[in-house]
């Protein structure tokens, strides 16, 4: 593989059959000859972040309505946090300028203790075996797109799919199920 799609977005086309990925926006974190790893950005769980923090004895100062998002079907018990500026955490790994990732409970504690924390918390992630994502792209299951921290951290999950398509120059109403997914 000569070109990586990470960090970048893949956006499910309307005729995506897999219920795990219907109308999803996925941030690709890793993409190489061994496969790909990403996180679904726009799928909320029923779990309020405040409840998760309480279960782990983490003080919570944020929005009581903020929910944990479902990052994907792989290892749903694993927690991950995507966070932006001005937060800095030595346990975070840079995804792109202005966006970092951590699996540390310590990082989550630091972010939840801030009233206006600029972050999203996820359970699980998405993964593809070697060549699998490339096949799905060739079959037209995904549209690739650019990523920025504001998309990841600030767009509401229920409007993200439409907005990300529009931001990448695609009219969501022009994507006909079963039709071409070419942009």
Helix/strand class: alpha+beta
Q: Point out poorly predicted stretches.
A: 178-183
Which architecture per CATH? 3-Layer(aba) Sandwich
CATH superfamily: VC0467-like
Helix content: 10-25%
Note the beta-strand portion: 25-35%
Give the total of beta strands: 10
Distance between the termini: 23 Å
- Please identify the top-level CATH class: Alpha Beta
Give the overall silhouette: globular
**SSE run:** EEEEHEEEEHEHEHH
**Average pLDDT figure:** 91
Largest sheet: 10 strands, mixed
Quickly describe the structure.
By secondary structure, the chain is of the alpha+beta class. The chain contains five helices and ten strands, in the order ββββαββββαβαβαα.
SSE layout and pairings?
Elements: E1 8-12, E2 25-32, E3 35-40, E4 44-48, H1 49-55, E5 67-70, E6 74-84, E7 93-96, E8 99-102, H2 105-112, E9 119-129, H3 132-138, E10 142-145, H4 149-154, H5 157-167
Parallel strand pairs: 5-9
Antiparallel strand pairs: 1-2, 1-10, 2-3, 3-9, 4-5, 6-8, 6-9, 7-8
């Amino acid at each position: 593989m000569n070109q990586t799609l990470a960090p970048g977005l893949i956006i499910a086309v309307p005729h995506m059959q897999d219920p795990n990925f219907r109308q999803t926006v996925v941030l690709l974190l890793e993409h190489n000859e061994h496969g790909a790893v990403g996180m679904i950005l726009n799928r909320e769980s029923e779990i309020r972040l405040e409840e998760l923090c309480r279960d782990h004895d983490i003080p919570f100062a944020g929005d009581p309505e903020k929910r944990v998002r479902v990052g994907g079907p792989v290892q749903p018990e694993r927690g991950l946090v995507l966070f932006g500026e001005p937060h800095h955490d030595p346990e975070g790994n840079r995804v792109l300028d202005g966006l970092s990732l951590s699996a540390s409970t310590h990082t989550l504690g630091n972010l939840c203790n801030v009233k206006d924390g600029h972050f999203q918390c996820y359970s699980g992630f998405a993964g593809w075996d070697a060549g699998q994502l490339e096949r799905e792209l060739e079959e037209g299951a995904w549209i690739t797109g650019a990523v920025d921290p504001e998309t990841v951290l600030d767009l509401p999950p229920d409007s993200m799919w439409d907005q990300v398509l529009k931001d990448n120059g695609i009219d969501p109403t022009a994507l006909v199920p079963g039709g071409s997914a070419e942009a």
